[in-house]
Write a structure and sequence with these properties.
Blueprint (H helix, E strand, L loop, with lengths): L4 E7 L4 H11 L9 E7 L5 H14 L4 E7 L2 H5 L4 E4 L11 H18 L8 E4 L4 H10 L8 E3 L2 H15 L6 E2 L2 E3 L7 E3 L4 E2 L2 E2 H4 L3 H5 L1 H17 L4 H16 L8 E6 L11 E8 L5 E3 L7 H23 L4
Helix pairs in contact: 1-10, 4-5, 5-11, 6-9
């Protein structure tokens, strides 16, 4: 989608993911070298001082395309007239918290942000990065007048992780791996679909003869990669999450190359037998004008169907948890 100027809201903008995101938004890399960028940076009140420091650094980068930054703790000010909302900020999971606690803790945040998105531009697109991303996106969508099709929960990070694993196993370049889909939830139940992935145009299952690995270590590595990174570096995967969120924007802003697809959690329309009304990751194709379609007709083995059923069941449970509290 071509614009002369784009206005982007970033929540949690002083955090690690925001810090890795902002320079690339302002550089021209994401929206084009002739598109001006205005940034609306939203933070909780105690973090506004840190946000001032981030803004100083952004100014010191002297990005020619960055026309304005608005620093605020007011969500309506942040979202007024925006074209893109990157909902990164979320309540983190604390020690001893159950996933249900995390869902309910984030509910008021994404309810308020959904309401505030009514002030956005008519073409607004929303990518939810803050976890649990799928159901946070569902809460925001159900509390907004913005069309449901404009909301996405980020599973591009999982797609990128899966592509990296396949490329390494096959001994090929990252660019040689295409058609990698993520089905379901951005959680340990997600299903990375190597059965329909291609390596240099050939099915991955033909290139990689170790099918036990494809149904075992490959799947669990993608599912558990975030925890492995936390264990290794003591912090969550901020750099790769920021990169994936920006990849999602690029994929939605441009027409998908022929024969390929990308992944995001979007409102289910019943495709692949998934219950309608869930934010569920599917393979998608974008038209470059703000719309997308779910790729249809992929072959799903009985084993893969079991994986999809398991992640669907988790998302149904999450939906029911937040519905019981009146959040959707």
């Amino acid at each position: 989608m071509k614009r002369n100027k784009v206005v982007v809201a970033v929540t949690g903008a002083a955090g690690n993911i925001g810090y890795a995101t902002l320079p690339r938004l302002a550089s021209g890399e994401i929206f084009g070298k002739d598109t001006e960028v205005e940034l609306r940076l939203l933070e909780i009140t105690p973090a506004l001082g840190a946000l001032e420091g981030v803004a100083m650094e952004m100014n010191d980068c002297a990005f020619p395309l960055l026309t304005k930054m608005v620093l605020t703790d007011n969500v309506e000010e942040a979202f007024d007239g925006i074209n893109w909302a990157m909902l990164i900020g979320a309540k983190p999971r604390g020690k001893g918290m159950l996933r249900s606690d995390l869902l309910l803790g984030n509910g008021p945040i994404f309810t308020g942000q959904g309401n505030a998105l009514n002030k956005a531009a008519d073409d607004v697109q929303v990518i939810v990065v803050g976890n649990p991303a799928n159901t946070n996106a569902l809460i925001a969508a159900n509390n907004s007048d913005v069309p449901n099709s404009r909301f996405a929960g980020m599973t591009r990070l999982d797609q990128n992780r899966a592509i990296s694993q396949l490329a390494e196993k096959a001994g090929v370049a990252i660019s040689d791996v295409t058609n990698m889909a993520i089905f379901g939830n951005h959680s340990k139940t997600m299903y990375p679909d190597a059965e329909n992935a291609l390596i240099n145009g050939t099915p991955a299952y033909e290139v990689i003869s170790d099918h036990e690995w494809l149904r075992g270590d490959f799947v669990t590595t993608v599912q558990n990669r975030g925890a492995e990174i936390i264990n290794a570096r003591g912090q969550s995967s901020a750099m790769s999450a920021a990169n994936a969120a920006l990849d999602h924007i690029v994929s939605m802003e441009n027409a998908t190359p022929d024969g390929d697809w990308f992944s995001a959690g979007v409102m289910s329309d019943g495709s692949y037998g998934v219950a309608e009304g869930l934010i569920f990751s599917f393979p998608l194709r974008a038209d470059g004008n703000g719309s997308y379609e779910i790729v249809q007709g992929l072959e799903i083995s009985d084993w893969a169907q079991q994986m999809i059923d398991a992640t669907e069941a988790e998302l149904i449970s999450e939906r029911d948890t937040v519905a019981a509290e009146g959040l959707i």
